[in-house]
Amino acid sequence: MDAEVTLTVDGTEHRVRVDTRTSLLDALRERIGNTSPKKGCDHGQCGACTVLLDGDRALTCLALAVAHDGAEITTADGLAADGELHPVQQAFLDRDAFQCGYCTPGQVCSAVGVLEEVRRGWPSHASPDLTADPELSHDEVAERMSGNLCRCAAYVNIVPAVQQAGGAQA
Amino acid sequence: MKDFAFARPGSVAEAVRDVAAEPGAVFLAGGTNLVDHLRLGVARPELVVDVRRLTSREVLDTEDGGLRVGAAVTNSELAADRRVRERYPVLAQALLAGATGQLRNLATTGGNPLQRTRCVYFQDVTTPCNKREPGSGCSAVNGYTRYHAILGVPSAMPDPSAPETCIATHPSDMAIALAALDAVVHVVGPAGERTVPFGELHRLPGDDPSRDTVLEHGELITAIDLPPLPAGARSAYRKVRDRASYAFALVSVAAVVAGKDVRIALGGVAHKPWRATRAEELLRGGELTEHAVRHAVEVELTAAQPQPGIDGGNGFKIPLVTRTAVATLRDLEA
Ligand SMILES: Cc1cc2nc3c(=O)[nH]c(=O)nc-3n(C[C@H](O)[C@H](O)[C@H](O)COP(=O)(O)OP(=O)(O)OC[C@H]3O[C@@H](n4cnc5c(N)ncnc54)[C@H](O)[C@@H]3O)c2cc1C
Ligand code: SF4
Ligand code: FES
Ligand code: FES
Question: Is A74 helix (H, G, I), strand (E, B) or coil?
Fold first, then answer.
């Protein structure tokens, strides 16, 4: 069955007809032509499809497009909309935090979300004190980024990149 | 994926009416479990009813000093709530031990406890499974049982072709904490409103493994209450898994120590969050020494039926959950 949805993607509003079965990921890639979020697993297990959805990092493969009518989405592409790299993107370059690059758009969006969550004071499983404000330690970053798998195993450089972008010593 | 109609009604009453009227209808919240099941063919609804924006997304103080959590509050928001972190650390820890940041931002308070088992055969539509297809048999018996039950199962190797056989576990971390907190579930259904004590929400397979909970078709969770804990109460959650992050529990333990009362809920061991009531009785009023806790959990587990299977089956869960319980209560004594 078809439905019309409006999605604002990287600042541009799109009105598209989608099948009710279409995931947000497929709507972005196949209907809107934004191939920055990647399809790694399509089952919520890899993080390659991560975007910022209404301001928070979220997977797009387990979200139905029809359920997110009216959403504001920022993809890794949109983070550099004015041609200037986002600090997280710059840190990934500086720290050599990718190899093939397939997981990178998801990593970058996730990292932007992580830094915002830390700024808000959200704890993680790795936080030594649940009630204290979290710090960007290695363990904190590794735990918070655990939803983004990297088949090339660039993890050793991803963690320092996220720390650098967050202004922590890395 | 089978085609389905999609509806986003304007009210809880309308959503309940829509689902109640269509036997093939389901509620959709964050979608992180349901959409996966749509894609796998595990769920084949005629109608998907989006309720994510219908229920409350607020955590409110209740008059008795507890909290009321709206069903649309995300797992991330709830784990980050100051009051939860300070007063119900067991819940914040359980939430943070589950899934990942970008899943918790979607997952909801109503959807999380209703997520379905991660039994690999349940998720594989090419294999017999009584939960997915009643009467087809259970492929897990003597198969891959590492994530399966040891409690609430009739024997060490139930009849795989019997229609009542199911040795699956309930996968939610949050639910184990809610069981230990004696949470209360607010439900609206075709027959009106009711509350369900969290400990009675999930069921054992009984003669119908297809039903995970006591909720009737069309019943919607609107909120979950966390009753107040007495001053000085402590609580904690411990999860043991195959890797350090982003993995379901092999076993887990939620513990609450409140005055003379000890409440222990075990995860990864049964078809529902398992309140270790025998262990709790043995420990009530006594000193929570390592010896006492070990003994109490061992008594609780005398009913355990470890399942044989690939890679040695799941008998490892008996010592593992015992040690995990000892460690959890030691954390609370420290
Ligand atoms: C890769 C991966 C790893 C994960 N790891 C963990 C983990 O380690 N620990 C853990 O606990 N969980 C884990 N999860 C599961 C995740 O926590 C659940 O999928 C999520 O909490 C479900 O919430 P939701 O809002 O997305 O529910 P949905 O997927 O929208 O719905 C789930 C079910 O609940 C029903 N439903 C939803 N809301 C209501 C309501 N208000 N009233 C009545 N019925 C309702 C739906 O019909 C559906 O049957 C993982 C998931 C994935 C994909
Ligand atoms: S354990 Fe339950 S869910 Fe798994 S195959 Fe058997 S019946 Fe299905
Ligand atoms: S494609 Fe979405 S998590 Fe893998
Ligand atoms: S850089 Fe290749 S998958 Fe991560």
Answer: strand
- Statement to judge: residues B64 and B206 lie in one domain: yes
Alpha carbon of B142 to ligand 2 centroid (Å): 11
Residues of chain A by 3-state class (helix, strand, coil), percent to 5: 35, 15, 50
Does residue B305 lie within any of the structural domains?
Answer: yes
Indicate if B257 and B224 belong to the same structural domain. Answer: yes
Dist CA B253 CA B177 (whole Å): 8
Give yes or no for residue B201 CB within 6 A of ligand 1.
no
Q: Which domain holds residue B23?
A: 5-49
Mean confidence (pLDDT) of chain B:
97
Residues B74 and B40 in one domain: no
Sign of CA dihedral B232, B224, B74, A142: positive
Chain A hits for B88, Cβ within 8 Å: none
In chain A, residues under CATH classification 1.10.150.120 are 87-169
Question: pLDDT digits over B70-98, tens only?
Answer: 999 999 999 999 999 999 999 999 999 99
A69 → chain B, closest CA residue: B8
Q: Which of A62, A123, A127 sits opposite B31 (nearest CB)?
A: A62
Q: How far is the CA of A96 from the centre of ligand 1 (A)?
A: 35
- Please tell me the CATH code under which domain A87-169 is placed: 1.10.150.120
Which run of H or of E encompasses B82? helix B82-87
| Domain(s) of CATH 3.10.20.30: residues in chain A | 2-79
Is ipTM > 0.90 here?
A: yes
Q: What is the CATH number of domain A2-79?
A: 3.10.20.30
Contact residues of B toward A, CB < 8 A: 1, 3-6, 8, 28, 31-32, 35-36, 38-40, 48, 50, 52, 76, 79-80, 82, 85-86, 89, 92-93, 96-97, 99-103, 105-106, 244-246
For residue A11 and ligand 1, the question of a CB distance below 6 A is answered with no
pLDDT(B150) > 70: yes
Give me the residues paired with residue B186 across strands.
B195, B223
pLDDT digits (tens, 9 = 90+) for B158-180: 999 999 999 999 999 999 999 99
pTM of the predicted structure, to 2 decimals: 0.98
pLDDT (0 to 100) of residue B83: 98
Strand, helix or coil for residue B59: strand
Helix (H) or strand (E) holding B256: strand B251-258
Are both B207 and B302 inside the same structural domain? Answer: yes
